[in-house]
Every structure is written in C-alpha cells, then in structure tokens.
Design goal:
Layout (H helix, E strand, L loop, with lengths): L2 H19 L3 H21 L2 H4 L13 H31 L3 H29 L5 H36 L6 H27 L2 H30 L5 H34 L7
Length: 279
Amino acid sequence: MDMGGIANFHLIFNMVSTIILLPAIGLLEKIAVLTIKDKEEIEEEDASQYLSVLNILDERIATIPSLGIENSLKVILQMGEVSEKNFKKSMQLIEKFDKKKMEHIQEREDAIDEMDIRVTNYLVKVGNEEVTEQENRDITRLLKIESEFEKIGDYAYKFSKLVENLKEKEEKFSEKAYEELKSMYKMVDDTIIKTIKILKEKDMSIIEQNKDLKQTLQIDQEKYKMAHMERLKTGKCSVEIGLNFIEMLTVYERIVEHCINISTIIADRMKDEEIVNPI
C-alpha cells in the first residue's frame, strides 16, 4: 500500500470510529464527570489526613521542651488551616447546599477538637519538664493560641449550621444580602489566612494589616446591618432571613476578634526580647 493509500485508510478509520462512538459521547462525559467528582471527594474528605500531624507529639520528645514546643506549634498551625478550610466550605454552602459537604465540615470540626485536646495535654506535659522562663511563657502563649484557633473552628462550624437551618426552612438570601455576606467573607477569610501566616513568619507588617482589616470590617458590618434592617422594613426579606443574616455578621466579627487575639499574642512574643528561636 502506497503512502496515499495509508493516509486514506487512516481517514476512513477515524471517520468510522467517530460515527460509532458518537451516540456514546453523552455517556462517556457522565463517566468522566463522575470519575473527577470521586477523585475530588477522596482528596478533600478524608478527615483522618488532618490528624496524622498528631504523630509528632511523641512522649519522648516532650522531655525536650524546645522540640516539644516546636512540634506543638506545627499541630496548632494545622488547626488554623483546617479551621480556615471549614470556614471557606461553610460559605460555599450558601450558593449550593450539599448534605455530603455538611458532613465533611462536621468531620473536620471533630478533627479540630481532637487536635485541641491532644496538643493541650501535650503542652501541659512539656511544661512539667525543666523549662526556662522563656519556654514557660511560650507554652502559655501556645495554649492561648490553640484555644483561639479552636474557637475560630467552632464559629466556622456554627456558620455552616446557620446555612443548614435556612435550607431546612427553604429560605434564601436576596442577591443583595448574599453579595454583602460574600464581600465580608472575603475579608474575614483573608484575616484568618494572614493570622496563620503571622504565626509562621512573625511578620509585624502582617499584624498591622490585620488591625486595618478589622477596622474596615467593623465599618462594613454596621453598614450592612442598616441595609438589612431596611430590607426587613420593606418586606424584601423574611424575619428568619434577617435573624440569620445578623447572626452570620456576628460570626464574622467573632472570628476576626480571635484572629486579632492571636496577632496580639505573637506581637507580645516578638517584643519580649532578642530571640534566637521564636515560637
């Protein structure tokens, strides 16, 4: 067969294959979508992956305070990151509620609580060893920080329950209310991310950024409360929606307060003295 014949054969073969597979394109697309979805669920939803960090809380290392403090910090950072993820996923439920995702939020909340208990007990054990004055202060600060992150996790979970409550009552935010919530959410989420970064990098400039964000949030919160009260008066939203909207704004406010508390603790640690290995 010459080159022209081979080319013609390939052309005919491809055309026939396309004709045969054409009716199955829809089915193949569905299979592809399901495959991708399953992969996403596997990657996101195994809450046990977050608890693997607890393996570094080794009892033998607890006898070496500097290492015990360092490992405890890694667990606390994980708590912060999981709390931020839960907050993000909770906000996504407003746009599209998913019962399965709600269950995953609960699993991550349980993981945060488990990390909280384990790192608290571990830091207490480290503190019972022979520690320096600075190490003792660092342990106290870490206990306060992990408590703050645990509360952020609680509020992220509370936000998801508020969304679930609206879904059960078949209530929905107006487009304007949703845009206001989304606008504030972005600032709050940014505050959580910056707070985690502060703990990692000890950057005073980020601490100042968090303070500025808090002021902006307070201004927007009052503005959006007034706007929502106006919607209630004019009947553009129900009382149930109004109560949930205000409660969500309160969740935002509390999360930012806990972020500022963490920032303040880190700022105090940085001002303590010239430190070789800050927490």
